[in-house]
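Provenance and format

Records in this collection were gathered into a single text stream. Each protein contributes a sequence line and a token line. The two records reproduced below are adjacent in the stream.
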Amino acid sequence: MAKIKRICTLLLRLIAFSSTLAAAIVMATSHESGSFFTISYEAKYTDTPAFKYFVAVNSIVSIYGFVILFLPSENKLWQLVVATDVVFTMLVSSSISAALAVAQVGKKGNSHAGWLPICGQVPKYCDQITGSLAAAFIALITYAILLLYSIHTILHPLQLQKT
């Protein structure tokens, strides 16, 4: 039974690692050029601080996920994994929130501020942003499941035994 739990945890951690890595790579490679009449422009992730934050967080979390994959289950550092899982789950959540807010403005614009939507002019760029956000959401859900499982594992010995 313990071996099955370890394999499931390893599989979830592999999904979380690959999702954060994919989110960082897809966002970091998102760029597209366009033109409006005679004015040419380029849309890239480095133009927006929220997207830079998204790439930085997902890169850090994917490095963490990679390191955790090779941490032996007998190691004392596993006691810190729950705390670091909480921190990195919160970081992924905040980076998704920031990037999603900017992506929404890019898609719909903001008539009150006079910002026009850009996704009509650079659809490939917007599609890459959407794909990156989807991968990050998968990572967030996976880390939430891992966090719930870790909390359950820690609290399980405290439950009263039925007599």
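Adjacent record:
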Amino acid sequence: MDSFQFDGIPEFTLAAQLGSFTAAALQLGVTSSAVGKSVTRLEKRLGIKLLHRTTRKLSLTSEGEAYLASCLQVMDELSDIESRLSSGSAEPRGRLRIDLPAAFGRRHIAPMLISLARKYSQLDLTLTFGERTVDMISDGIDLAVRIGDLKDDPELVARRLGDQHLVICAAPDYLNQCPPILRKSDLLERDCIIGWRKGLRMAWLMKNSKGGTEEQEVRVRHEFGDGEMMLRATLEGCGLCQLPTWLVSEHLRSGALVTVLDNYAGATMPIHVIWPRTRYIQPKVRIVVDALLNMAEEKAALFGVSDTLRLS
């Protein structure tokens, strides 16, 4: 590979992160004009515009955002390899960007990651929480935990951690105020609480007579973009909600919530850890993947993994 193929990349990544050719030039020990010309040559070679230039600031184009994420990932990998070769150690180091499901991530995954970071002093974490599907490559995400079916993406690697089991439940006060709920169609006449996401259908996953799952439309009263708030509203007697067992188990045991339609409920959603496919898995990624797989086996009830199931 010719060395010129790397020309302009250090200047581009630094200018993009700092938002200024001048700031990048000060760190690189060159002139602002030299940085600008290097980036221009890089854009010409790639045939795309990477940066919007104004007299006040620089901003990335959509192509520039994707290219920057790829450059940073490659530079991180090179840094890790150099550190490993020089020290003879595969200890995780550097910043790891992880995207987690909101409620599940905050309650169960984040505490484990924080403990892991205390163990490895060179491991730095950036954690984000949300239910939306992110573009891991463009957004520069190193690792993500996802609940639900995954799209077939050759650029990503996925390992299954277990399953999330769903139940339909409500507070006794709410159930005492409405007729018994005996059929799936009754959900079209009751107050239902759903998770809000753009483009999400107003339906719940339920078992059918063949043992499979199908979507059942419901009458929506309230929508929340956060699982903890869905739980709070359900506990307050605002209606029925389909929630995972890891979120409601203590409230079911105490009687604060009661399940309904048990013959039809019980659908599951897979839980995966995913990361971008590369030839070399960085130690910081490998250590977190291994920790998540160990956690899934040690906390089988949380991940819906039976004693007979072992992750391969």
